Amino acid sequence: MRRLLLAGAAAVTLMGLGAASASGQTPRNEAFRMLALFGDVLGIVEQAYVVPVDDKKLIEAALQGMMSALDPHSNYLPPSGYDELQERTSGAYSGVGLTIQAEGGMVKVISPMDGGPAARAGVNAGDVISSIEGQSAAGLTVSQVSEKLRGAVGTSIKVTFLRDGEEPREVTLTREVIKIDSVTGRIEGDFAYLRVSTFNENTGRELTETIARLRGENPGIKGYVLDLRNNGGGLLDAAIAVSDAFLERGEIVSQRGRKADQIQRYGARPGDLTGGLPVVVLINYGSASASEIVAGALKDHQRATIVGLTSFGKGSVQTVIPLRNGADGALSITTARYYTPSGASIQKIGIEPDLEVSRSLAEARIVSRSNFIYSEAAYATALDSSIGAERKGPHTPREAPGESYDEEKDYQLERAFDVLRAGGNLAQLAAAPEGIVVTDEPVVRAEQPPTDPLPVPRLPPEITPGNEPRQ
Length: 471
Prior knowledge:
Layout: H1 2-23, H2 26-48, H3 55-68, E1 75-77, H4 79-90, E2 92-95, E3 98-103, E4 106-112, H5 117-120, E5 128-132, E6 135-136, H6 142-149, E7 156-162, E8 169-174, E9 176-179, E10 183-188, E11 191-196, H7 203-217, E12 223-227, H8 236-244, E13 251-256, E14 263-267, E15 279-283, H9 290-300, E16 305-308, E17 316-322, E18 330-339, E19 355-356, H10 361-368, E20 399-401, H11 411-421, E21 436-438, E22 463-464
Parallel strand pairs: 11-12, 12-15, 15-16, 16-19
Antiparallel strand pairs: 1-18, 2-9, 3-4, 4-5, 5-6, 5-7, 7-8, 10-11, 13-14, 13-18, 17-18, 17-22, 20-21
């Protein structure tokens, strides 16, 4: 029914345009004039271009250009791209293990997938793909880069990455089947460590099973670390399920569309799988979309302490609309912004940590440089936040490892365990150890009252808060 209604709306719109054109209303006349212009240009290209052209490719490129002019996350998916999207959300696909996004004529890495070829090669969130097989990637679309990166399992491809303050680095990536175990976990002393690498159809079930397994291994668990670093997002349903696992009641997230009455709210069901034990959530600037829903919900309900760096700031929802049941691909179009339980928009702002800690000195330098702030706010076509707030500008993180710190260690994770040892109370948190650079940035925890419990409507699977291409 939903797809029929969408098609009906399109038909009504065209009828309206026709009537308006007859009545001489200038904006609609202009739309028809530009459509005629498109046909004229296509005809000229067919007749005059130096070599024969493929009309289908030209029209698909025009559709992609039209969608990308809206915002960084709206796009046209050709049939092959739509098939790939369905593969990714099912939890397995082939490629090199990257989540990518276009920005200013470049394609950047949003996050490398845990355990994938790119992650093993040391690719980081924010790295820019500068060339593929020696050919410049400047000006290529996400779809074009995706096509180049994909290939038969076992084949290799050379990709050059740029990183702020470093020389270009060429790595050889061998394509493989990326089987995503979205949730992994282990016992660390008195605490449980949970890693959620993406949000797909299996995430809620995997989290429930992992928590049960860890409680079986150590019934005396005293707290949990939920690691969402470099998690580029995925299905909204999965984000709701993960949030729900740690909450007894209250709103998790709301989404608001173009019209005032287009509001949907999603709430927690009774039953905290951790029994109310302290929780710390780890985030960084590679934590986007669904990751920010979870971090925002747990922070607003004072259910978790947030440690790390301000998240990416993608607070928009994309609806995937198949065209002719997918035979002509699909549109992924931004239809709403989402808001945390306190009513805050994450769009272009992100989730700020309660304890700001960088994993390395190099990462702290990235955050401090105005020319390399990696976030949604860096996109020229990004939606505004709608609440008038702005993302915190370039600054030095409150805590950062010094030059002598062992880079093999994970300082953010160490501090997360320190917070758990303090019972989640930042006022009782031990001072940073020797060798850690500490600025005078205040540690402030906003007081947000829990919201009343709400019913939990479930989204249809075609709606996602982030469907960034993964390769």
